[in-house]
């Protein structure tokens, strides 16, 4: 069972939050809370598989971040780091999730560790899924602008979008079914075909606010137990991931073979095998 809640960001932006429950559950019952934060271009329902096995033992909420999913997409923004972190903070407080375990993928992981550094009183534990702490730089942003221009929109069907992102996208070196599934789920049907739920211009604006900066200082401020997870073929290299663990006061490391950036799609069983023991080991207190 999935129930929607609306969260209001500090600037009035309406955010869609989704609580995943077992069919006979009536609401919060003291189970430890988990907030799932998707990455850039993602949506809350990308976490549906993870949420299903978390729900029996946790209160599980996933957030559509601003500009994504069914949350507001204000044309003027802001799409800054401060805005994304403040939205996650609002979700934790308005839904009474604290102390919460934050599980973030890619940009959502950066949001999670920035919130953990800013409001340690709200966060019990943290999971960083395939997100770098180093700066990506201006060249990376130009590459993304070029990639967005190459999308053959509109797609005639949702399956056509799945095939293009998973098999035909010239930006990737080898077929990646998990990537295709990820992008198929953020496509919506319109009069002329299938287009993304999000604005590519807004995604570039959001990305612009963090790709030029490194985030090691904020990472070092995270005091709660933290798991850094990388896909063996993902965007976070092993050396950087291990350095992130070293910088974290309570860091742990895990990697998932045969997985890329979208590792919770590529290898869901292996993803569960590294996440579940970590969550089970998190102390019950704040």
List keywords for this structure.
10 strands; alpha/beta; Rossmann fold; 8-stranded mixed beta sheet
Description:
The protein has 2 domains: 203 residues, 3-Layer(aba) Sandwich (Rossmann fold); 67 residues, no CATH class. Helices cover 37% and strands 20% of the residues. It is built from 11 helices and 10 strands. The strands form 2 sheets. An 8-stranded mixed sheet has the order 1-2-4-3-5-6-9-10, sandwiched between helices. α3 links the parallel β5 and β6.
Question: What's the layout of helices and strands?
Answer:
Layout (H helix, E strand, L loop, with lengths): L1 E7 L5 E7 L12 E5 L10 H7 L4 E5 L17 H14 L5 E6 L1 H12 L4 E7 L8 H12 L8 H11 L8 H8 L2 E4 L2 E4 L3 H9 L7 H5 L5 E6 L6 H10 L3 E6 L6 H4 L1 H14 L5
Parallel strand pairs: 3-4, 3-5, 5-6, 6-9, 9-10
Antiparallel strand pairs: 1-2, 2-4, 7-8
Helix pairs in contact: 2-3, 4-7, 5-6
Pfam families: Abhydrolase_1 (PF00561)
InterPro entries: AB_hydrolase_1, AB_hydrolase_fold, Carboxylesterase_BioH, Epox_hydrolase-like
Keywords: Hydrolase
- Main structural class: alpha/beta
Strand order of the largest sheet: 1-2-4-3-5-6-9-10
Q: What is the CA-CA span between the terminal residues?
A: 28 Å
The total beta strand count reads 10
Largest sheet: 8 strands, mixed
Q: Look up the CATH topology of the largest domain.
A: Rossmann fold
Keywords: Hydrolase
Organism: Streptomyces bambusae
Protein name: Alpha/beta fold hydrolase
Domain AB hydrolase-1: 32-267
